[in-house]
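REQUEST FORM: STRUCTURE PREDICTION
Request ID: SP-0412
Submitted by: Lab K.M.
Chain count: 1
Length (residues): 227
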Amino acid sequence: MDEAQLAHLPYPLPPWQHRFRTLSVFCEVDEKRVAALLPPALELRESVLQSTVMRFDSTVPSRPYHDSAVIAPVRFGKVEGGYWVFGYTSTDQVLSATRELWGFKMKLADRICLDERGAFITGRTERHGATLIAAELGETGEPLDVPATFPRLFWKVLPRADRDDAEVDQTVMMDAETQVERTVWGRGSVQLGASDEDRLNSIGPFEVLGASFVSGHQILPWGRELA
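STATUS: Completed
RESULT:
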């Protein structure tokens, strides 16, 4: 891209870099409920979902931000990864960039917060006056066998400007370069709520299996177009 094109974009191009902290609660769910929320090309691999609240102290983009998501372990052909069934972020810059670059299914949250108090960690995501994700971890040190959700797999759909059709319709893989520095395991709890535009509670009922808190350094590179 030339200088004029780059100046027109409201976000920086990859690679993005940040230090991250991620609270995750893992739940056993009804496979049929989750499969109904997936794009046609993606297949659910397991019945364990990951509900997350994340903080990114980034150098690219320049502003720190929070993300929050419900992530399903999926398969596209022979490629396995994690799909964001629901996804939220705290800044307009990340909202536009992640959707246009990789195809994240992202919405702007009213508030996302991650709070560490010793061995007790909480995360919360709010939108349209409702609490969509309320997650907690109490440290026990007991590890949990959970499905891998990297690389990320996305269904990137961008509409045409002149008619009811898709300009872009792709399955995209993005494999983050992650250096984990700390992992905490514990018992967990999570509540999935609903607003007028967000029906996270449609996933329930579910059984909480446990929780983790992971921190380290990460680079988000260019994606790969699979189809």
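NOTES: The first strand starts at residue 16 and ends at 28.
Reviewed by: T.R.
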